[in-house]
Write a structure and sequence with these properties.
single chain, 319 residues, seven-stranded parallel β-sheet, three-stranded mixed β-sheet
Length: 319
């Protein structure tokens, strides 16, 4: 029995794959390689390059490897860019999820852990977001993730799919020096790229209604996130009860400017960030309560902000 990881050659997916292996669960990776890195997948892990829109091939893989569950991370993950490319976001995140669910039903695979997002909340009115907070996404990306949750929920009713959706906040750091965040849009890679090029990092938006005017987010370490995925997979396989959604957040907000200060301290490179206009689709503040995940998924913050920056900075040197 094995677990299929869609998007398993990506930054988060590769950490999940390694955590599955460490827990004694056999991972199988499917990735389109639109943003994945082949070297992130260990040689001993079965790997298939294909898009999750390819239903028949997914069925073949699930049957070949006796797949018992799917951790679904594949998708288009850029909130700001999705405003420019909404059709792409919906094709990958909604249509792709529907094809994956179809393949799972055909293969009689009944367990799913879904990579959702804090973007489903939009800009909440509460200082601390819980799973009961209203969902009002402000970007096509956030909308597509919410629709993905609905599809999975409805398939649970229709076909007995056991599932849970994990709503991520800002994922940073590295659990292994060779696994780096390759995104061209995420904050840490952009900051490190600028510093390595002798340029000054940028802050997008300094006029938000926050303490220092910059966006406030929950920053969580990717290795902690991966462990929560594995725990969810184990619970589903054991038929243990799980909530339909969980927030994976720290409960503490960190501003972009605070991140810049931590980067300067860890790298030893002093700089004053350039201030640019806001990006479309970026809410001012999202900070989450992870109490339910702590109760059911052994969720906890095992790394400080400086440890997150330090591990990410070391891994970035491998790019």
């Amino acid at each position: 029995m094995s677990w299929l990881v869609t998007g398993g050659a990506g930054y988060i997916g590769s950490h999940v794959v390694r955590s599955l292996s460490a827990a004694g669960l056999d991972p199988v990776v499917v990735d389109s390689m639109a943003s994945g890195v082949r070297g992130f997948v260990p040689d001993q892990v079965p790997f298939y390059q294909l898009n999750i829109l390819q239903t028949e091939k997914l069925v073949e893989i699930m049957k070949r490897h006796d797949v018992s569950g799917v951790i679904h991370l594949a998708g288009y993950k850029y909130a700001g860019e999705s405003v420019k490319h909404p059709l792409l976001a919906f094709e990958q995140n909604v249509t792709g999820t529907a094809h994956l669910l179809e393949a799972m039903e055909s293969s009689r695979v009944h367990n799913m852990v879904f990579s959702s997002s804090a973007a489903v909340y939009g800009t909440p009115n509460e200082d601390l977001v819980t799973e009961a907070t209203g969902t009002f996404p402000e970007s096509p990306y956030g909308q597509s993730k919410l629709v993905g949750e609905w599809l999975i929920r409805d398939q649970g009713v229709a076909a007995g799919l056991k599932h849970t959706s994990l709503r991520y906040f800002n994922v940073v750091g590295s659990g292994s020096d060779e696994l780096y965040d390759a995104s061209p849009h995420n904050l840490f890679p952009l900051v490190f790229q600028a510093l390595n090029a002798g340029k000054t990092p940028k802050i997008f938006g300094t006029d938000y209604g926050t303490a220092d005017g910059t966006c406030v987010r929950d920053y969580v370490h990717v290795a902690d996130l991966a462990l929560a995925h594995v725990e969810a997979a184990k619970k589903l396989e054991a038929d243990a009860p799980l909530e339909p959604v969980y927030n994976l957040g720290s409960g503490d907000g960190v501003s972009v400017r605070q991140i810049m200060d931590a980067v300067a301290k860890v790298t030893g490179i002093e700089f004053s960030a350039l201030e640019e206009a806001r990006r479309p689709g970026d809410p001012a503040r999202i900070v989450a309560d992870g109490t339910l995940a702590a109760r059911d998924l052994d969720w906890k913050m095992r790394h400080s902000l400086e440890q997150m920056v330090h591990s990410a900075w070391k891994a970035s040197a491998r790019r």
